[in-house]
Amino acid sequence: MNSSRCVIDTNVLIGASAVDLSSPSAHKAIPEDPVLRMKIWEWLNSFWRSDARLVLDHQWRIRREYNDNLNADFPDFGLLVVRHKWDTGATDGVDVKYDVHGHAKLEPGLNKVVLDRSDRKFVAAALAANTEFGECALAFAGDSDWRPIVATLDANGLEMVDVIPEWVPRRLHRRTKKR
User: How would you label 68-104 residue by residue, b for 16+ Cβ within 10 Å and e otherwise?
Assistant: First the structure.
């Protein structure tokens, strides 16, 4: 990651937390491979220990998604990292505009690319941080929705960090074979 700021997709937090199989989040983590989950954990642990800043939206939709998908009572490693960044003042807030359905608003061209509406808030926050602070990356892992749009987001000035680039989702692999 070249940026000192990062928006982290929830799948990174879930995947890192799933290293501990007793985590309530472990059942929903992708990929299932423990070696790849450990790579996600290592990346998140490195982020935690670094001076890099976590970017969140002022509207708390990103944080709400984290809380909805991870267990605060357990506690999951992913939430511990978020709390640490918050508690140490290593977060930056940005304004994200949301529509009446609660989905982040993007430029029309990006709306056609970011099909998973719940992912739009991560893109919008990273783009807002790029504008406000001059840099921001978006980290993802274990989510095949990001892979096909990385080049387009990169062309729009968004640094994408694929935490486990060696992982090829079965779904994406099947789609590629049919073409």
Answer: ebbeeebebbbbbbbeebeeeeeebbbebeeeeeebb
